[in-house]
Amino acid sequence: MTEYRWLWPSALAADPAGPLSARRSMRDWVVDTLCFLLGFGFTAAATIDLLQPNPGMTQQWVGTPVWLVVADGVLSAIAGIALWWRRRLLTPLAFYLLLLAFFSVASGITLLIVVFTGAVHRRFRWVAMFVMAVVAANAVFAYLRPGTGAGFWSTFGWGTVMVVMACLWGMLVRARRQLINSWRERAERAEAEQQLRVAQARVLERTRIAREMHDVLAHRISLLSLHAGALEFRPDAPAAEIAGAAAIVRESAHQALQDLRAVIGVLREGQSEENRPPERPQPTLSALPALADESRSAGIRVRLNMATEPDTVPLVTGRAAYRIIQESLTNARKHAPAAAVSVAVGGAPGKGLTIEIRNPLAVTVPAMPIPGTGMGLIGLTERASLAGGRLSHGIDGDEFVVTAWLPWTE
């Protein structure tokens, strides 16, 4: 297939109908063949007719010198052949036809095709200057070669009307192509934005799940570590105590596996919203007594002071508060396993929910400390911020304190 190897940079950059293709498409082959047949065919037919003693379609130019008819035919034939490459040679071809327009009859259809092509592939300024130049050349042609039985104004008027009609038709095609291109770009942009939103939603969902995995599994596994450690360091404990600790280990492991299975189920790819199983209800402040009992069963002394009714706290605030307390208890088990932890929760609608977790600093480092990621407090701060609250932590005397405030609307 013919390639457009010599694209003019200025024409390519200024093409309002979009960049020219590197290769001819099937549509281009059909259009180019039709334009070539019209332009070159009219040139050949007009030249042969003018050379006849009694011309038919060109009879209004009877008496034209033979040398002028032959010259007009040869020069117009060159322009007709050049129509095959009119897209890449548009500017030189337009200038060449402008010179022929002063005296040529045989290049009329070729000139109209170039005007149309220019209106499609060039900016308005280029098209306007070219059309005005063609109209001026048409005025000279009407003065030099007025048709027999037709005056200057008739010849000039018909020529101008045809040029303007070709220009308007080309501008209409250009506007339609621009509109289609804008629709296509808008659809592609909307699709890209939708894909970006989907990707962002996936990242946010996975981040939320990772946070839940950290909070839940860290709590469960820390309990497992404490009970397993007790069994390891007290092999001579009574059988009932060993059986109770083993039962707690088994139950904690079972719950950890359930939590892990739920998280992995959500992370599976290709699972639609309709087929995704419903998530389990997230714990709120109502589950704090059970959380404290779990910690006490692991040997952690927890003092829970609830100064507000858990059921009156909004669900979002209650879930965030539960996770903050859960992670704080997990950290206390990791870094100060023998210390007593006090948890105080209070507040009222309109004033907010306040949380304070205190535990003495560890005097000795555990022989086998529970490993951690070191991101727990950072995650707590982010969780409180996402809930619209704030969280602070630090050492107060000989205690480590975590303080949080969460909004509680009326």
TrEMBL record:
GO cellular component: a single term: membrane
InterPro entries, per database record: HATPase_C_sf, Sensor_HK_TwoCompSys, Sig_transdc_His_kin_sub3_dim/P
Occurrences of domain Signal transduction histidine kinase subgroup 3 dimerisation and phosphoacceptor (ranges): 205-271
One MF term in the entry's GO annotations: protein dimerization activity
Catalytic activity: ATP + protein L-histidine = ADP + protein N-phospho-L-histidine
Transmembrane segments: 29-46, 66-85, 97-120, 126-144, 151-172
Biased composition (Basic and acidic residues): 270-279
Region (Disordered): 269-288
EC number: 2.7.13.3
Entries under Pfam families matching the protein: HisKA_3 (PF07730)
Keywords: ATP-binding, Kinase, Membrane, Nucleotide-binding, Phosphoprotein, Transferase, Transmembrane, Transmembrane helix, Two-component regulatory system
Protein name: histidine kinase
